[in-house]
Every structure is written in C-alpha cells, then in structure tokens.
Amino acid sequence: MLTEGPRTLTWSELYERAKRVSRALAGEGVTPGDRVAFLDRNGIEYFEVFFGCALLGAVSVAVNWRLAAAEIAAIVDDAGAPVVIYGADYAATVKEVTPLVSSVRTWVAIDRFAEWRDADGDGPADDPGYEPGPDDVVTQLYTSGTTGLPKGAMISGRNISCILTEADRVFHIGADTVSLVAMPLFHIGGTGWALCGMSHGGHSVILRDIEPVEMLGLIETHRITETFVVPAVLMFLLATPELATADVSSLRTVFYGASPISEDVLVRSINALGCDFAQVYGLTETTGAITSLMPDDHDPDGPRAGLLRSAGRPLDHVELRIVDTVSGEDLPAGEVGELWTRSEQNMLGYWNKADETASVLSSDGWFRTGDAGWIDAEGYLYLHDRIKDMVVSGGENVYPAEVENALLAHGAVADAAVIGVPDERWGETVKAIVVRSPGASDDDEALAADIIAATRTRLAHYKCPTSVDFVDALPRNPSGKVLKRELRAPYWEGIERNIH
Fold it and tell me: pTM, whole model, 2 decimals?
C-alpha cells in the first residue's frame, strides 16, 4: 500500500493509475526516452507519474521545488521535458518559468491531474508493453549543486535493481516493512528509499514535507518500522518537545546519511528513539548507498565506540579505492585521499554533459566521488569532507567535518560549519560559523573564546578555528548538506583563491 494523508492506494490501484498516466503521456506525444518533469512536494501523484513514465519508456525528472524560478527553468530546459506536472503551491513559479523554457508543450496542474489522467475514461487502461533494457534510463535526478549548477544524473534500471536487491539482502526491507518516506523525492534518499520499500510489498507512508510533530504522529498512527532521514532531521526531532511523549516503539531501524553527523547528535538520537540505527553513505551518482555502518557497529559505550565516526564498509558488490589527487596512485590504509568507487550502481553519466561525465567516470567504471576520506585495516570507510571544502592552512590539510564534530561537542553549539577564510600569513585559516544552543551566552566575544579553547583540547591547534561567527541558521540544501559556497563567498569576494 501507498499512503499520503487520508489517501491510500493498493499496488493494483497504483498500477491502474500508472497505466492511465502512460496513456495520457502518449497522448501528449511523449515517446521512449523523453523526459517528464514533476514539480511538487512529496505525494502519491509522483509515483503515478514515475511508474507511468516507466511503463512508456519515458524518464521521470523530479525537480527540486525549493529552487528559484530561473533554476527550475534551467533544469526543465536541460532535460528537454515536453510535459511538466506541477503542484498548486508552484502555480506562481510556473508562470515565471513558462517564458524561460522552450521544450514544454503541456503543463498539467495537479488540481486537474486526475482529469488529465482520465480524459479517455477512468476504467482500466492497457499497459503499453514497453520492454526496457537494463541500461535504459529510468529516472534523471539532478545533483544538489553544492559546488556548481545541478547536473542530471542518468539512473538506469540496472542501477535501481542493485539498490532494491540490497534493501532485502542487507537491510531486511520486506513485506512487513512500514516505511516512512520522509525525504524529498527529488533526492535519491527520497525516491531510492521509497522504491526499496515498495519493491518488496511493504506499506509506504509519504510525509509531504519535513515537520517533526507530524512525523512523530505518522510513526504512532501507522506503526512505522523503518525510515531514512538526514542528520538535520534527527536534530529537529531532538529539539521537539513532543518527542518525550511520542510512541515510537514500532521503530526497528532508523537509516541516516547524506550529510555528516556529530557523535553527540547520533548518541542522543539512539537513546531518544530506542531502536537500531544504520548509517548509509552514497551519492546521487551511485544511486544511493554504497557503504553501511550496520546496527551492530553502533555501540557508543563499547570498546569500538570509535566506529560511530565511520561510514561503514562497502556493500558486497561495491569496490572502493582511496586515491592521491596529485599522483593518481592508490593510497595505503589510514591515509587520506579521494574516494573512488566502482559498482553496477554507478550512474550512466550526466545528461548532455560528456565532458563532466568523463571527468568523474573512468573508462573502466570508477566514479570519482569528490569526497575525501580514508579506509582502515578492517575496511571501514571514514569520510572527512568534500575535496573542494578542504582548508589548506600553512600547508596543512584541515578537513572541516573533523572540526565540526569537535565544535558540536560544546554545549553552547547547536549547529556548526567550518570554512577556510583568507589569511596573509597562512594562506587561509579556519573559521567556525556557529548556531547557538538555546540559553547560550549572548556575549559573542567570550563565547567564541570558550569555543575555540574547547576545540583545542580535542584537536591539533592548526585545525582549530581562529575565529567564530554566530548566525541564526546555516544554509542547507534539501539533502541537509551545508552550502559552504554561500558561507565562503563574503570572505573571498575579490580575492583570487588558488590554494586548492
């Protein structure tokens, strides 16, 4: 079953609706390989369109509804979508987008979606009978654009088949799973997670948008057993008073990933929710999870508590390498370099971007993640940061995630990000951008000094912040990643940054 609010569809009902969507798309001239864009928050209609496209051999494109009109237009135009389905909340945005795109022939508002879908009758429709190949593109998900313009990652049937197999074999997602689909469906953590539960016949409950109190209510009402969230959602839940009285006893496993998590937030979440936790690491380009830190590795008080800082070990079919970014040579266990991965989960490439594809996908199938990390002797992966976010201070590499973890151990720090800022002596130096915890001192100078002193008890001095700025909130993309470009921009304006 698939549930959103008061609406529930059985799988047979969803199939019938998908066939009607397929018929309607064909009526609009959509053919195999065409892209069909969807612009709305999480909802049942998304899956009708997703499977309707698949039945026809078309490609669904979930568009990030948080983007500005010009950014949305760039994605729709890049995809060359002839049809766009959009929610009522985005009618004004669509008016702005319409004159900026040339590919769209048909705009379908969701408040008339059923009418459009059933224009030829609401009875059973024929399955168009398209026979897909394993390397046909099923969905095109646009990267979050933390380091530039979004790119359309082409995800194939083979890619998706891998994650569905692992959901059963490794994570035991099955027919008895009641899955909360909480993350945005334009993100692999939304669509990929939803497909894992649906493919094994479980009950999937859709959360339209992240709202902690509503999320807790759905867990209680539907007896949710599994969900996937980003660390920022766990932080929201921990700050929600209703968590103390909510019945979350049905939860078996909370999967988390997509952005760094502090040990403090993780341990508090484990204690508050009282269920198993499993970390997964992956990217849009790898169709989601390629490593996992399993529940047995989450033991904050045990002899291997240090594993909480790990992203886990690769799934059985996944290969990993740590590569020196200068020499291109593999590095030994314990040394930091760029993470490369190879498996059948790697995307086909970026749509209409051959050069960008060639820069990240080698001819023998290795994908350069752009993430810095190291692998220990037991095969556990430890991630530091994006290679481009690394701070080089006086010739020493500083990985912001390590510093952020130390900052978040301070009681006055609710959230934190670390960036490099210009420094005449060292080239660049470490700055902390901090969100205060409730009740923390409002004396900026004294609190900054205390935070810096505290990090120096945990880290080498060259890694520690030399300054602290306080903000009300950090800018994040929908997958929870902090937008470091936005934080860095004011400090580097007019300065040539050629350190890395």
Answer: 0.81
